[in-house]
Amino acid sequence: MNTRQLLRSIPTSSKPRISSSIRCISSSSITAQIPNSTATSSNNAAGPSLTSSQGRTTHFGFKEVPEEQKETLVGSVFSSVASSYDVMNDAMSLGIHRIWKDSFVSSMLPKLPPSLHQNPGTSPIEVKEPFKCLDVAGGTGDIALRILDRAREKFGSRDIQVEIVDLNQGMLDEGRKRVAKTLYYNTPQITFTHGNAQALPTHIADSSIDLYTIAFGIRNCTSLPAVLSEAYRVLKPGGRIGVLEFGKVSNPLFKEIYRQYSFQFIPIMGKILAGDSESYQYLVESIEKFPSQPEFAQLMRNAGFQTGQLREGKGGAWTDYTNGIATAWTGVKA
User: Where does this protein hold S-adenosyl-L-methionine (predicted)?
Assistant: First the structure.
């Protein structure tokens, strides 16, 4: 069954009309439960088993679906858009997503601990464990390559390691194609794993990761608390988490313009550029359903992360980009 058939098979009675008075959806309706199944890594067993979700529903865009179906539906969307994903990102954001991602990675790597150094007056050289990053839902390699480039160009690091985990094989395939054209190809600096953010593959041990990133992916997960709990589990004490996702625009006029653009034009662009308007309709609906900036920051705190104050900007738990169209949340494992 293709994406269109899957999307059309879902009852549409719960889908609100798109108009100039689109209502914001309360985050209380989006705190989904943990599904009863998970994809496993192609080379590794999956992590903790997920709780049964029989009889429970969650959102898929504006539609209510059984929890156990959401993973399949989301997978179908990203299988459909994988080959055109980067082109559509450029078209939808007018290229601004590149600036957001550059700023996000720079904020997550303001400095890099050296992994190879010689203490004064000692010999031989002391080799420390490489700085390890986990980029979740990062199949195309967009964030991972930025991390590696920044480490190399800013800090001269050649041994930082990034593992990409993604539930969608099509997105991973696109990432492998991209990496094959870079100097990181066939090096231990970047690896790809098929796995679930809600139950990471078991080879990713507790307290083993220095930096965890997830960009424009967490809103597609069934359970935000489960994703954050797994991130907390695998991070080392003092390790950092960075979540880049679409936020809520605060300026009323800009907010309305942005909504009209999202709902009226993005699905049309999806049809023209990718031959698939339904998948992009889901993507803009999923943005509407995601929690507000303070609500998501509180979810991070609930998972155990130390964040800044529940406000935007310096000393705050999040940073808004382009009036809150995109937002970066950060936290530290105590």
Answer: 140, 166, 196-197
